[in-house]
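TA notes, week 10

Several of you asked for a full example with nothing omitted. So below is the full record: structure tokens for the whole chain, then the designed sequence directly under it. When grading your own attempts, check the secondary structure regions first.
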């Protein structure tokens, strides 16, 4: 068994997996990792299922002290990883021993994922270990990590012998200018005829008003002239247009229902990239058909869930 204590929690660190699927009708958001790509890659490196529970660290990660041996991996926004005061490479499996301290003091983008061989053992709630910070459920008592928290994972003996690193083409690179592919949204016809071309032509900037729920963008407003929208289910990646006209893109911890008109829906590849965006980063949009977006997602995702396509021996 791998045990560790949180010496410093970082800015905002919580337990996340793929999310709490199938319970939006009860008012529970799907949640889960904002960047599913990095979650999957980190888990592959330590021999887990792609969706095992990890730590999601935001902007500045935690400092952990291990009391038992284990295997960990840190993947995401080009994180700085320090083991016992010495820098080590991210994007590869890292063996830890009793007394070792692992820190993620900085990163180039918004988030990094720390995976542990065996997956973090916290109680399941509605089929997921993810922390829902709004409802206060899942993870560690439904909250972010605090100093003194103790967690554990139970790796197989063979997992501790693995030494993997990500294939170079799959190592995440933090982009500060994103080009997001999106499908038409359910209220597209209610927008003015020029709205789609405005959204595709303008350069939007990520505002400081962003979190796990969504990202508000600053830029040229988009006008909606259609009928009032009744509250309806909210998909990941929905591009909402509130009364001010500036877009909001919904992320993993989005609300379950909402009534803002949606001009488009960003695909899974773009959402993973947007999950690493920082205030000031730039965003452009490109519309595609639903079928084109689904094909792009299937090709992208098929590679990510195949560990043999992701890792090489170190």
């Amino acid at each position: 068994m791998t045990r560790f204590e949180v010496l410093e929690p970082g800015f905002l660190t919580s337990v996340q997996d793929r999310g709490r699927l199938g319970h939006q009708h009860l008012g529970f958001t799907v949640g889960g990792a904002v960047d599913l790509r990095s979650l999957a890659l980190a888990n592959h490196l330590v021999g887990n299922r792609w969706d095992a529970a990890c730590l999601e660290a935001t902007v500045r990660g935690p400092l952990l002290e291990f009391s038992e041996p284990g295997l960990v991996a840190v993947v995401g926004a080009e994180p700085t990883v320090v083991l016992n005061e010495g820098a080590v490479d991210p994007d590869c499996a890292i063996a830890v021993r009793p007394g070792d301290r692992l820190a993620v003091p900085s990163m180039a983008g918004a988030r990094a994922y720390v995976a542990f061989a065996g997956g973090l053992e916290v109680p399941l709630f509605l089929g997921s270990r993810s922390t829902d910070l709004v409802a206060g459920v899942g993870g560690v008592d439904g909250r972010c990590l605090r100093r003194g928290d103790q967690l554990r994972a139970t790796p197989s003996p063979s997992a501790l012998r693995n030494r993997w690193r990500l294939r170079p083409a799959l190592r995440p690179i933090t982009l500060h200018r994103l080009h997001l592919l999106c499908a038409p949204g359910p209220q597209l016809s209610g927008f003015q005829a020029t709205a789609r071309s405005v959204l595709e032509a303008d350069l939007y900037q990520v505002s400081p008003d962003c979190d796990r729920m969504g990202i508000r963008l600053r830029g040229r407003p988009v006008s909606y002239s259609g009928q009032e929208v009744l509250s309806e289910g909210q998909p990941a990646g929905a591009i909402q247009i509130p009364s001010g006209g500036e877009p909001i893109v919904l992320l993993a911890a989005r609300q379950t229902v909402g009534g803002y008109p949606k001009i488009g829906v960003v695909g899974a590849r773009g959402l993973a990239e947007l999950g690493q965006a920082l205030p000031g980063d730039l965003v452009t949009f490109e519309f595609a058909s639903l079928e084109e977006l689904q094909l792009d997602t299937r090709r992208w995702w098929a590679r990510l869930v195949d560990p043999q396509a992701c890792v090489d021996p170190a």
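Residues 166 and 311 are 4 Å apart (CA to CA). Use that as a sanity check on your answer.
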